[in-house]
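My current task is to audit a protein record that another person submitted. Thanks in advance; the entry in question is below:
***
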Amino acid sequence: MRQGTPSERAAAGKAARAAARRSSHADWDPPADRPGPVDVLAHQDATRVPELVPIRYERMRASPFSFYRGGAAIMAADLAAGPRSGLEAQLCGDAHLSNFGGFAAPDRTHLFDVNDFDETLPGPFEWDVKRLAASVAIAGRTQGFDDRERRSAVLAAAGEYRQAMRRFAAMRNVDVWYARLNIEKLLARWGSEASRRQRRQVEAAVAKAEHKDSLRALRKLTREVDGEPRIVSDPPLIIPVEELAPGAAGADVATAIEEMLSTYRETLDRERRVLMEGYRYAHLARKVVGVGSVGTRAWIALLLGRDSDDPLFLQVKEAQPSVLEPFAGKSRFSHQGRRVVEGQRLMQAASDILLGWLTADGIDSRRRDFYVRQLWDWKESAELERMAPNDMATYGQLCGWTLARAHARSGDRIAIAAYLGGGDVFDRAMADFAESYADQNERDYAALVGAANAGRVPLQKES
């Protein structure tokens, strides 16, 4: 398919302003038929592990920002009700501040990138930007920032997205794909804008993360039983498979898991299949993760290589249809795990070498889609609660640049850049939207708290 010349693509981007003025993205006025936020969450409960659903509500009830983290489905419907530019890219689908962070690239450099793709799907680029912008405003409110401080942070994030997209528009195709943000570049580019305290925090977090791997997981999550490491039970957050299926024969469970891992290996590139063939299955446990993901089926699998001092922990996480699907259309991939993997590979500068997918029968005998990745591989997230206003503005810039680079790989970066323009019209629209949506989030959060106090949603405090 002919893509068009740069001038034609830029013209298409500017023409998109007729369908959705840049300033129109500032508007948020909830429609009269907007579904209740608790109803949206309850609809998701139907496909989740019943005994874990109370943990999800307890975590979402912790703060308006925690609620926002768990409410991607609520915002998906709200975004669909707003203006659409018609300029699409592969979306994260849940691009809030806590879904960016550091991890190890295959060449063992420490990268900063988007790191959650459960909801990834192609869609209007601005949906991700709005999700990011609102998260900055909501996090700022949680930190007690005033109106000016919050607006400044949102403008920094949105402005960096726009300016970065314009820079990517001028680059050669292959150079866009080579672009990545390692920790050294991060500190060189934004270190002067960060406070001395924040720079020290970043350096300490990186040093700590580089010890967060399967060896550390082995020490933290297992104990030796009959000469073999076993994942320690810590219900309801970690439960070994034999406790979830107490009547099942151990040999049968092991055989079923080996078959499951065999199908996963087939989704890897050949050289990585060779790597995985050097590991044997040792143990499996269900593990509760995140906020929005709580209640979906997530497992950790312990594999051993050369000996018991050569562990590999994999996370096997259920992939359900994206919350964007009712509004952006179905994925081209019928397997939801593959949808996640393909979206991650498209958006990230470098992805986990063991990223793959599988289909498995659950304890309830229902077949479900999963994706697989390493459990810990230098993963680390920013501590938003320790950020001052200037720190959050700087962090928002990091996220804005990263999101622009992710979108530039799959979307028409020239058209998007032309739509955004050289001025700050779009930036200011994002700042206005972020505050209006932060108000909406607080109303939705209050609705959840009210439902919890009235006993209309189940709650379970973690020990």
Remarks:
- Residues 214-374 form one domain.
- The chain has a mean pLDDT of 93.
